[in-house]
Amino acid sequence: VVALGMTILMIVSTVTELSLAEALIRHEAPTDSHFSAAWTLNALRGLVLALFFAAAAKPAALLFDEPRLTGVMLALGLSVFLSGLTNPRRIMYQRDLIFWQEFVLAVSQKLAGFIAAVAIAVIYHSYWALVIGTLVAQATNVAVSYLVLPFRPRITFRHMREFFSFSAWLSAGQIVNTLNWRFDYLLVGKMLGNTALGYYSVGSNLAMMPTREATMPLTQTIYPGFASIQNDPARLAAAYQRAQALLTAVALPAGIGVAVIADPLVRLALGEKWAPVIFIIQALASVFALQTLGSLVQPLGMAKGETRMLFVRDTQMLLVRVPIMIAGLLLAGLPGVVVGRVFTGLCSAVVNMVLVRRLIDLPVLKQLQANLRALVSVAAMAAGVAFAAGQLPHTADRPMLALHLATLVALGGFLYCAATFLLWEAMGRPQGPEREVQTILGKLLAKLRPARRQA
Question: Is pTM, for the whole model, over 0.85?
Answer without folding.
Answer: no
